């Protein structure tokens, strides 16, 4: 069976990645608009309502507008923007982070794809909170660096025009659109303290959550966190969990290849009390296009790894 798919916003960085992954897939037939009608509301409305699946790669307000154009009860939506990531009537499209989430995605009509930074944070934190190894009421902090492609065409152009930029810290107002998503889907009481930055690498991302376990309380050690994460992701073809012992450094290279994997590591001191939970992923892969394709596969009843770069 062939499913029709319309990517609204196909000219953007994420949209181009998704189209590239789906272009040779025989299970999907891409619905494309002529360039001069790509932003035409009537043309978009027709494409949206005539497609089995619609993937939204748009700014938040445009994504909300696109949803309002639906006038049928069958078109299924995957929103890659942040517009619906905390909406109660949308299913969160991170299949692995929580027990039963894959089944929720499979049965959903409206799926909101996770943000790149929250994918890393939730990947290491949410299963541990769910199992009671980390508390819901701890003030977690997140340090993260991303490749500059995560900022879309504008940031890509800036890094090309300003080659002296090596590290760009931002979000210094301590506000960021990903913060409510992290708090809600980890089930936390407090907002996280989020410290994002962009580095001179096209793609890739490292997300880190430092923990002082004795200060947190509860008696957990680093080995307990490692075992719980390994058990939670056991059998996953996409997510892997590593013991960081003996690892001297963790690198992002300027031209790392594309991947849809999510690699989680537990680094600790000899006592097992001081821990750095670290997620490494491709901000355009598992952080965007890869997870969108994975969700599409699940919703279409296919092997979720089809078309992924593993």
Write structural notes for this entry.
- With 310 residues, the protein is an alpha/beta fold.
- Helix content is 31%, strand content 22%.
- It folds into 2 domains: 123 residues, Rossmann fold (3-Layer(aba) Sandwich); 168 residues, Dihydrodipicolinate Reductase, domain 2 (2-Layer Sandwich), CATH 3.30.360.
- It is built from 10 helices and 13 strands.
- The strands form 2 sheets. It has a 7-stranded mixed sheet. A 6-stranded parallel sheet has the order 2-1-3-4-6-5, with helices on both faces.
- Strand 5, helix 4 and strand 6 form a beta-alpha-beta unit.
- Helix 5 packs parallel to helix 7.
Query: What is the 3D shape?
Result: globular
CATH topology of the largest domain: Dihydrodipicolinate Reductase, domain 2
What composes the largest sheet? 7 strands, mixed
The percent of residues in helical segments reads: 25-40%
Rg calc: 19 Å
SS content category:
alpha/beta
Outline the secondary-structure elements:
Elements: E1 3-8, H1 13-22, E2 28-31, H2 41-49, E3 53-56, H3 60-68, E4 76-79, E5 91-92, H4 101-106, E6 110-112, H5 116-130, E7 141-147, H6 152-161, E8 167-169, H7 179-186, E9 193-199, E10 205-212, H8 213-216, H9 222-232, E11 239-243, E12 262-268, E13 274-281, H10 285-299
Parallel strand pairs: 1-2, 1-3, 3-4, 4-6, 5-6, 7-9, 11-12
Antiparallel strand pairs: 7-10, 8-9, 10-13, 12-13
Helix pairs in contact: 1-10, 5-7
């Amino acid at each position: 069976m062939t499913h029709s798919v319309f990517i609204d916003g196909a000219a953007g960085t994420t949209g181009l990645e998704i189209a590239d992954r789906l272009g040779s897939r025989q299970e999907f037939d891409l619905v494309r608009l002529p360039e001069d009608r790509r932003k035409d509301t009537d043309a978009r409305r027709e494409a949206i309502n005539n497609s089995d699946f619609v993937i939204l790669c748009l700014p938040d307000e445009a994504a909300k507008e696109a949803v309002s154009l639906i006038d049928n009860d069958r078109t299924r939506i995957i929103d890659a923007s942040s517009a619906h990531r905390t909406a109660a009537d949308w299913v969160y499209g991170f299949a692995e982070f929580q027990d039963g989430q894959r089944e929720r995605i499979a049965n959903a009509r409206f799926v909101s794809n996770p943000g790149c930074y929250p994918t890393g944070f939730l990947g290491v934190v949410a299963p541990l909170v769910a199992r009671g190894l980390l508390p819901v009421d701890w003030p977690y902090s997140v340090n993260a660096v991303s490749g500059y492609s995560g900022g879309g065409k504008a940031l890509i152009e800036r890094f090309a025009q300003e080659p002296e930029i090596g590290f760009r810290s931002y979000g210094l107002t301590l506000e960021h659109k990903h913060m409510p998503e992290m708090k809600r889907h980890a089930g936390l009481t407090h907002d996280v303290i989020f410290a994002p930055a962009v580095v001179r690498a096209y793609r890739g991302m490292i997300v880190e959550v430092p923990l002082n376990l004795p200060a947190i309380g509860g008696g957990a050690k680093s080995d307990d966190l490692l075992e719980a994460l390994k058990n939670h992701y056991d059998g996953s073809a996409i997510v892997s969990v590593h013991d960081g012992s003996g690892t001297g450094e963790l690198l992002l290279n300027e031209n790392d290849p594309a991947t849809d994997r999510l690699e989680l590591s537990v680094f600790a001191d000899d006592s097992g009390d001081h821990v750095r939970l670290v997620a490494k992923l491709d901000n355009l892969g598992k952080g965007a296009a890869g997870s969108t394709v994975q969700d599409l596969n699940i919703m279409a009843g296919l092997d979720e790894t089809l078309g992924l770069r593993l």
